[in-house]
Amino acid sequence: MTSTDRRGWQDGRRDAASLAEILHVLKGRRLLVVGAVLVLAGVALLLGLFREPAYTAEAVVDFAPRQAPEDEDARRAFAQEVFSAVTSPEEFSEGVKERVAWRGPPEEFRDRLDPGVSSVGGGVEMRVEFAGREPEEAARVANAYAQMFALEAGRLGDAQLSGGTGVAEARVIRRAVPAGGSGPPALLYAAVAAGLGLLVGGGAALSLEGKAGGWRDARDAEVTLRAPVLGSIPDYSPAENEG
Fold first, then answer.
1. Which pTM was predicted?
2. How far apart are the C-alpha atoms of 29 and 108, rounded to whole Å?
């Protein structure tokens, strides 16, 4: 049997490859398959670990002035002034980070934090959102920020605001709760990518095998022909004899 021509078999072979053929091909080109799996799984794992925070939690604080503003614009101005007076000092952010035992860089904390005030009906609200990599972290920081804001806003006196009226009441009306199902864990990304890598690597291996013009060894012939090989003729080509 020679290992240089299997065209005669290809003309009469069955359309569907057997499981033994597929496994044999994958084993013969295992470096290609394993390489595809490792590359895709590694990339997915890195993207999963360093992806942007996937969990967002929101807490809401309601606060009102001692004297109700005359119009909507006045309420907005009052809300913004209270917000600036409470959150502008560096001690406020440091106090929030101390409450939640924040260990990351200050820039990351600011990027993941999204507070703001708005006029709702006849009152004003402060809403704070925090994006975290874990749902408990997002809720914990949002609640700490809201609680500290309500505490500091309630301490503002008449002389501290330009309108001449302080805050009558500030309270957390909605606490943040841990979100569920906002994003799959990094290991799930890696597992899915590994399965995709197996399909890609296996498909590439089968495609290369289909384009090959010869058998590599007797075992390759046995699997392909689905029949035992009784003997083979060694290939004494000049290329091999040079070694």
1. 0.56
2. 45
Residue (of 176, 171, 193) closest to 184 by Cα position: 193
Parent domain of 158: 55-174
Amino acid letter for position 8? G
- Largest Cα span, the chain: 104
Task: Name the residue with higher pLDDT: 42 or 188.
Answer: 42
44: amino acid identity, one letter: A
Between 128 and 227, the higher pLDDT residue: 128
Cβ pair 82, 117 in contact under 8 A: yes
Strand partners of residue 127:
60, 116
DSSP notation for 14-57? -SSPPHHHHHHHHHHTHHHHHHHHHHHHHHHHHHHHSSPP-EEE
162 and 117 within one domain: yes
39 and 64, same structural domain? no
* Domain end among 174, 197, 221: 174
- Out of 140, 174, 208, pick the residue that ends a domain: 174
pLDDT digits 0-9 by tens, 12-61 = 444 445 666 667 666 767 787 888 888 888 887 777 666 655 689 999 99
**How distant, in Å, are the alpha carbons of 45, 53, 54, 110, 185 from that of 50?**
9, 9, 11, 18, 11
Q: What is the pLDDT of residue 151?
A: 93
Q: How large a percentage of the chain has pLDDT more than 90?
A: 26
